[in-house]
Amino acid sequence: MKTVRKRATGNGKQTRKRKRGTKMEVTGGDVASKEDSLVEIEASNPKRSRKSESMKACSSENNENKKNVGASEKHSSRVSKVVDAANNSKKLIGYHVSSAGGVSNAVFRAVEDSCRAFALFIGSSRSWKSLPLSEDEVSKFEEAIKETAFPLENIVPHSAYIMNIASLESEILSKSRQKMIEECKNCERLQLSLYNFHPGSSSGKGSKEDAINNVIESINIIHNETGSVILLVETMAGQGSTLCGKFEDIATIIKGVNNKSRIGVCIDTCHIFAAGYDIRSKEEYEKTMEKFDSIIGFSYLRALHLNDSKGPLGSNLDRHENIGRGKIGIAGFKNFMADPRFDSIPMVLETPECDYTNEMVKLYSCC
Known about the structure:
Layout: E1 3-8, E2 14-20, E3 23-26, H1 34-44, H2 46-86, E4 92-96, H3 103-112, E5 117-121, H4 135-148, E6 155-158, H5 170-189, E7 194-197, H6 208-225, E8 230-234, H7 247-256, E9 263-268, H8 269-274, H9 282-295, E10 301-306, E11 308-309, E12 320-321, H10 330-338, E13 346-349, H11 356-364
Parallel strand pairs: 4-5, 4-13, 5-6, 7-8, 8-9, 9-10, 10-13
Antiparallel strand pairs: 1-2, 2-3, 11-12
């Protein structure tokens, strides 16, 4: 044993540090902090240092596992509530599912959350680049459908946001048509029969009539370039020069389409409310649905987007809100859930906070 003597401290006492093997004993004074001592110990003993690091890693991993288990249990509980709430309901509710990692992943994500319907992007939603899906991805999607037995007719692909088939600028119009053709071909490769799209706008560079004619011509071109997919015109909020804020716009488009068996409509609850169609009370809801049926026709209804509205009635604001927290309110959604005309129609949530399982429970509870 070796004893090292230090100078006297201010109180006249000796401070002494004694080493015993690899341990350190600190007495009196302020020679070193406990933390510094531990660092010195570990530095002098690499084996102990590695063991300490290993223990820390294990502890961190265990904590992470506990978090994952807790999150998994909470998720299972939420999904169980969806299943219970949906029991005996004829409504098909889901949400816009991420297709990150491949479109096949969207199927499994939807099933994990007990979706009865869902939407997805077939390709990039904000890029002009559009390529045919690989044989591998098509095969994986087919396997996912086979494994989960998910009904293909309840899947509603959504068009890329960047497209504008109403554009009065020739370059944008041409690129939009080509991208939509590629996306529709990809739908057909996946054996998906529906394709929902935004009709677009004139961008303030021409007349509404010319823009609508471009939409009609675009649909006819896309039908000629593809085999079977049904194009669903989405009702819009009427913001700016955007088309289809009025049911009459959609009726005009349908009238001009050559193959009417391949055209349909997707109602967006936020959009029609913002466009001025009231759906809050039972009476106003019935008036709006009567207008839809007389102007467009329920025979063309193929999908529904479920969104509350941040903007008031007739505001033309395309701002989605969570169910029951916007200007429509839960009473408005009870009207849709009680309407048998929406049985067996894919209903897709596009709400901002992505609290989809809880919102599905809320909606099914309205039945």
